[in-house]
Amino acid sequence: MDRKAPDAARRSERSRRAIFEAALSLVGEVGYQRLTVEGIAARAGVGKQTIYRWWPSKADVLLDAFTADADVEGYAAGLPDSGDLAADLKAVLRATVDEFRDPAFQAPYRALAAAGAADEQLSARFVERLLEPGMRAYVERLRAAQEAGEIAAWVDPRIAAEMVLSPFSQRWLMRTGELTYSFTDSLVDTALAGFRPRPS
Predict the structure, then answer these.
(1) pTM of the full structure
(2) Which of 49, 108, 138, 194 is 20 to 30 A (C-alpha) from 20?
(3) Which CATH number belongs to the domain containing residue 26 in this structure?
(4) Neighbours of 157 (CB within 10 A)
């Protein structure tokens, strides 16, 4: 009876997924400082040499694990455009509040933010893979609103997007206050009050 040779690609993919799951679960349990490649390997049931063959550090493992299932296609589809910019931004930011409150999201994101502060290359990859696609979606929605006359012509859509998102990130990262729907609704209202066309 013929036996098929083991599928190395499928085995490698299983190992990768196990490593990703181990890294994400462990960072939530022990924190980034106590997270180790050895610990990830033990949890995933692989040798640490397997991890080092694919990634140079625990930070790189965590980055790939966290961004593996990122909804980049969702970003590419853009933000909703109902014709009401304020309503659309509030809906998206409320959904973002829910995501950022999820412990499974918080632990790796905070770990990567801390690691990125000390590792410029890691930070650049994180921005490129996850943050920049989201930022572009906001910029494009704000530009569409500008073309529709909802935002003044002098407003730079990129700066406007950063003005909406930066206070959100600051509050969450620095824990300066609770992330709530009322906060994000107020954030949108305050920002748009400055972006609206002024009566001539």
Answers:
(1) 0.85
(2) 138
(3) 1.10.10.60
(4) 18
